[in-house]
């Protein structure tokens, strides 16, 4: 990670950003003369603009807080300052009260607490799906027409992808690969696994860079779960690995199963997923994507390489072999707050380790091909089918309320509950 630059080091402007409960990156631009001061002390922001806006930017009252009264402090993390080019830089931030106490609605702080409580070495990596479209003609046209995962979409967009990958590298975003996805105009950027907080910073920064580069080409990037053109859906898949004393607990045994701690983690996450779905899929449009048959992980089960399962087990990777074993949690999309989504998974991870249990047997077929009786016998059911159902499951979850805090859960529900 690059050392933060000061005014003398070349920063002309600093974007200070945090992601609120609505899943929106809220930001402010800092002039060069104030960069050092803001990096040390932070900057004031209205409590509404910082934490009490819905995804539609309507202020709501929650936790006894009035959206028209009070401020919080936005404290950037100087360790994570990243270059955006042309003298601009970016930094993620925590939210704190004026006296420097952590603010209840700070999602980055909530993830930091969850990562510490997990009591195991966890790494997280994201896959970001998005659709690129040309708006120049006055009507949308996808940047490519396939074929899915093909070379031709890459060749047709070499200049764009070259600038994108260069900008991500300059910002120190750890990219593993970029490829054309299944849908028209769709690409996927895969990020390397890192500490949970750094990984979530990476995904927010990567989306910022993707937006910047795409706009410079006169194009538009859509991260929506159901984009207006091109692919049927976009996901934000979360890869999670865990190790104890340097041993990957998801590494496969001779029986082809993860070690005991690995299976316990899978059990804990599967148990919690129905309650955590609202934190992974945070909009009403999310549930148009989160359906069987879309490879979205709508079935709450797990399986080796199974892309219809909510939890896909990968016992080995090309570059790291068995030491790269991990699980992929598929139901998430870009309307989620990534910090809260990962924090919820870590709550499930910890619960699985605290009360070791075997998950149901892995499912080695598309669950949609099983009969109702077969799915019932295997303990397979779908995740919540609407935002209202998902929020109700979240509200009733004592485990998530304990792990994230009642106030943060109630704030999230207040912000995410559809109007009317």
UniProtKB/TrEMBL annotation:
Annotated spans, Disordered: 356-377
Name of the protein in its database record: Gamma-glutamylpolyamine synthetase GlnA3
Annotated Gene3D superfamilies: Glutamine synthetase, N-terminal domain (3.10.20.70), Glutamine synthetase/guanido kinase, catalytic domain (3.30.590.10)
Similarity comment: family membership: Belongs to the glutamine synthetase family.
InterPro entries cross-referenced by the UniProt entry: Gln_synt_N_sf (IPR036651), Gln_synth/guanido_kin_cat_dom (IPR014746), Gln_synth_cat_dom (IPR008146)
UniProt KW keywords: Ligase
Alphabetized PROSITE patterns for the sequence: GS_CATALYTIC
Superkingdom of source: Bacteria
Claim: Ligase is one of the keywords in the record: yes
Pfam families in the record: Gln-synt_C (PF00120)
Basic and acidic residues biased stretches: 366-377
Domain GS catalytic: 107-420
The keyword Hydrolase appears for this protein: no
Native organism: Microbacterium awajiense
